[in-house]
Structures are given as structure tokens and as C-alpha cells.
Amino acid sequence: MTPAQLIPALTARARAAAHARPTPCPCGAATLADRPDGTVVRHGDTVAKAHPPGTGPAELTSRLAVAASHPGILLPPLTPAPLDLHGRLVTLWPYGTPVDPDDPDAAPWEAAATLLARLHRTPPPDGLPSMRGPVKAAQAITRLRATTAPSPGTGPHGATDPHPAAALVLRAWATLPTWARAEAPPPDGGTLCHGDLHLGQLVRHPAPDGPWLLIDVDDLGVGVPAWDLARPAAWYACGLLPPDAWARFLAAYREAGGPAVPADGDPWPALDVPARALTVQTAARAVTKAVAAGRPLDEVEQAVLDACDRMSGLPPQSGRDRAT
């Protein structure tokens, strides 16, 4: 199935599911996301998601079961197993109101932290796959290398030079322990984790003003819980998240009994390695996008790249498995 065919087919699936439910459908369709890692469409109060090519049906089904079993933490799916739509696995969900990107002061940092703490305190079921956070970071590095590799036969010396920012990102990547690069099992990786926490992973359900819930189970699994705190920690360390927002997030997580950091004192020995990994992942994606678009890095992207440069000269605070 080509990308042009996927969205109409996915929309038809969402429409059929919406009209099969007993509640009246307000109708109206929209494409919410169309990326290589997932296509999402909405019809009325129903959302259909086509998961990335190569997603395993058994692993996705086990992740859906976790969401269905914990409706107060995760948005529960409408169906217990994925559907096959022309070779892509598709899941159906109720629509929830997302975080408003135009109102950063209203960002639900406390709600996100509380949900994470509750998730981390939930015993994972047997057989749940590993959280995919380190794998996604490694994939970002692979794409960076492919995008910025020298191209033979062009340029004044017969090849184009790699993007200068790529070297900074790769140096920072090399300082990470092997578990954070998805090259070895994580230390103490038995906690139920979301795997890709950011504000786009929260919705209010029932819409429009129900309680906040976590969405997107693609990366859900067992792993190191500090990884779920790493993106806001990295943004704070890069100067992209205000100190008061970070303080509120961390305090809410601790108040809810989250196990990723100590109940008091310095949280950074636990957060340092995951926060570095998310910084490198973000920088790798930024450089890859900039090269593909033929544009310079913007101010936010440059701030993340500068953080990678600083990281390269400072070893991680902790980590049993040192970089090789």
C-alpha cells in the first residue's frame, strides 16, 4: 500500500468503527498525523492508527492489553488486538483532547508526572517486551549517519563533506553506556515504562475535559523508569524548559511515589544518562531534518547541539555499563 492509499483506507476503517458504536457519531474526518512512524486519522469520536511497518503483532497485542487493563493511566483501546490493513497493523481508539501547543503555560506537567509515577509502580505482566526508548535513540543515530555520510562523486574533491554538526552528536553518543545505545540490556530494567514520554502523549478523555491519560503504546515495555523522565530533564538541562516547570514535574512525580529517582535529594545521578541519551536523540533528529530540508539549524536545535558539545567533555554521572 502506498502512502497515498493508506490515509483513505485508514479513514474508512475509523468511519466504520465510529458508526458501529451505540453513541451518535458527530462525523467529520481529519488526519492527525502522517509520519513514517505512524499515521493517525480521526472520524468523529474514533481514532485509527496505522503503526510503523514491521511492528510485531504479538508485541503490539501485549502492549494493548496493558492499556486496556489500566484505564486510569493509559487510554484504553477500542479493540483488544490490532487489525491488518493492507500489510499495516491498525488499532482503534476513542478520541481524546490533546495538549494545546499554543498554551505552554497550561502544559499538564504535574498530571504527566503523576501518571508516570503510577505507571512505574504498576507490576508489568509476564512476557511484556522491553521498553523501546534506547532503540529509538539508536535509530535516530542510524538515520543521522545515513543522512550526513559523504556522497562520492560530488564536491570539489570528489565527495561532499558530512554535516559538521554530525560529529558533535556522534561524539556525545559515544560517551553513553552501551545499554543507553541499545547495545546491551539495561541495568535493573524491570519497571513498566512508557518509553516515549512527551506532552504529545497526553489527552483528556472523555473529551473535551476529562482526566489526563497517557497514549501511544508503541514503545511501552519493561525498562529503566528514569528514561520516561529524561525528555523534560534534558529540556531543562538545555534551557528549553523553565526551572519552575521542571520543579513542578519532579515534585509531582516524587509525591506520587515514583521510583525512578530518590524521594529527596539530587535526582541527577539517576537521570543523567537517560537525559543525555534523549539530548543526543533530539540533536540527531534535528540535524537529520535540517540536512534533508537544506536549511540551517534553528535556535532550539542549536541549543540541543550545544548541549551535546558540552556533554562530550564530561563523563556521565552514573551508569554501571560504561561506554566502550
What do these coordinates show?
A hairpin with a 2-residue loop joins β2 and β3. The strands form three sheets. The protein has a five-stranded antiparallel sheet, with helices on one face. A three-stranded antiparallel sheet has the order 6-8-9, covered by helices on one side. The chain is built from nine helices and ten strands. Helix content is 42%, strand content 13%. The model is unreliable at 155-159 and 319-324 (pLDDT under 50). α4 (133-148) packs antiparallel against α5 and α8 (268-293) crosses α9 (299-312). It is globular and about 60 Å long. The chain is α+β, with helices and mostly antiparallel strands and 324 residues long. The termini are far apart.
The helix fraction, in percent, is 40-55%
- Tell me the series of helices and strands, N- to C-terminal: HEEEHEEEHHHEEEEHHHH
Order of adjacent strands in the largest pleated sheet: 1-2-3-5-4
End-to-end CA span: 42 Å
Topology (elements, then pairings):
Layout: H1 3-20, E1 29-35, E2 38-43, E3 46-50, H2 57-69, E4 83-85, E5 88-94, E6 97-98, H3 109-120, H4 133-148, H5 164-174, E7 191-193, E8 202-204, E9 212-214, E10 221-223, H6 226-237, H7 243-255, H8 268-293, H9 299-312
Antiparallel strand pairs: 1-2, 2-3, 3-5, 4-5, 6-8, 7-10, 8-9
Helix pairs in contact: 3-7, 4-5, 4-8, 5-8, 5-9, 6-8, 8-9
Features:
single chain; 324 residues; alpha+beta; three-stranded antiparallel β-sheet; 10 strands; 13% strand; globular
Could you give a short description of this structure?
The protein is an alpha+beta fold. The chain has helices at residues 3-20, 57-69, 109-120, 133-148, 164-174, 226-237, 243-255, 268-293, 299-312, and strands at 29-35, 38-43, 46-50, 83-85, 88-94, 97-98, 191-193, 202-204, 212-214, 221-223.
